User: What shape does this take?
Amino acid sequence: MVAKGVVSALTEADALLGGGMSDEQIALLARSFMQDYGGRPVGTIIAAIRAGTRQATVGHKLTYPILCAWIAEQDRLVEQHNDTAHRLTK
Assistant: This one.
């Protein structure tokens, strides 16, 4: 079920970035991505993919390094949120 959600988000992202990836390529990309980032909540992964399609990478083809940049940005935003929330408790 998790993999299905990630594949769906990647299929959507591929279409938004101009398309061109086969179902097999998307499945391979999803498998590699989940091996490296599968420890994160699926909502975080899907949010990173959806937010990434709205960044300056639009117009590029979907690639593994782009996905990694999107998840790094999502991680940065989560850390920023957590830091802000922590500072409010002091």
Summary: The radius of gyration is 14 Å. The first helix runs from residue 2 to 16. Residues 41 and 74 are 12 Å apart (CA to CA). The chain has a mean pLDDT of 87.
